[in-house]
Design goal:
single chain; alpha+beta; Rossmann fold; hydrolase; membrane; His_PPase_superfam; EC 3.1.3.80
Length: 273
């Protein structure tokens, strides 16, 4: 009997953001860091090792074919819990290189690579806080909470930009084709941030014994069922008022239509970094 509404404009914002579609999704140069890494020394070594294992000339393989084999290994392990024969082609170092290749793609297409990647999610971010505000106001007036639980279902492409908008998992140095070794301890690991069945939960608490009105409502975040420390405090619980203050600019000034408007001149996607 659940009330279900399909709202692709809210949850598939990336399809409706013209700036993102034109400058990133359909721009052949937007993934230049990914393309450069495919031709770089780390991937060349992987290609040579895999070609050797298959008794093939290295020239018959490319990064895309090797990535398909690696993903087949990954999928069978994750979904069927079996070790695919494809896994025998790869060493641990190969796996790290191929993980970085995927992280590069997610970083530049869904993460911090271009501002529009995350800014396009601001309508979803604002909707979350509007729902929290409504629950808080109903609680203050002693009304029953009209929507005690709200479930929004999307994809990794929905969640990754939202987390980037909130500033999570941002490394000091951008992920690039030429800094693989320096990024060994990077925060941005898409396989850990948005794995299968990834989820982000906002939990609003009403604290009956708060010492001050400002402390009456507090909030926690859980990413993939684990508490996520807030950016502004590095704590796992925050005053709701403090959280809104921290994100005030996004809540008040990020407007989807304006953010997603196409530039009047033919600006290259790289200029938006």
């Amino acid at each position: 009997e659940a009330d279900i509404e399909v709202n692709d404009v809210l949850l598939r914002f990336f399809e409706h953001c013209r700036r993102f579609v034109a400058l990133v999704e359909e721009n052949s140069t937007a993934m230049h860091q990914v393309d450069a890494f495919k031709e770089g020394p780390e991937m060349r070594r992987v290609l040579e090792r895999v070609a050797g294992a298959l008794c093939l000339p290295p020239g018959e393989l490319n990064a895309d074919l090797v990535q398909v084999a690696f993903l087949t290994c990954s999928y069978e392990l994750a979904i069927k819990n079996v070790t695919s024969p494809w896994c025998s082609l790869f060493s641990e170092e190969d796996a790290k290189v191929l993980e970085y290749l995927n992280d590069l793609k997610q970083y530049w297409k869904r993460g911090y690579g271009y501002d529009i990647n995350s800014r396009s999610s601001c309508s979803l971010f604002q909707d979350i806080f509007q729902q929290l505000d409504k629950a808080m106001e109903e609680s203050k007036s002693s009304k029953p909470i009209s929507s005690p639980v709200i479930v929004q279902i999307g994809h990794a492409e929905t969640l990754q930009p939202l987390l980037a908008l909130m500033g999570f998992f941002k490394d000091q140095e951008p992920l690039r084709a030429n800094n693989y070794a320096r990024q060994a301890q990077r925060q941005f690991r898409s396989g850990r941030i948005v794995p299968y069945a990834a989820n982000l939960v906002f939990v609003l608490y009403h604290c009956d014994h708060a010492k001050a009105p400002r402390e009456e409502y507090q909030v926690q975040l859980l990413l993939n069922e684990k508490l996520l420390p807030f950016q502004h405090s590095n704590q796992t619980i925050a005053l709701y008022a403090d959280l809104k203050d921290y994100y005030r600019d996004i809540l008040q000034n990020c407007r989807f239509e304006e953010e997603c408007e196409l530039p009047k001149n033919n600006t290259a996607a790289a200029d938006e970094l």
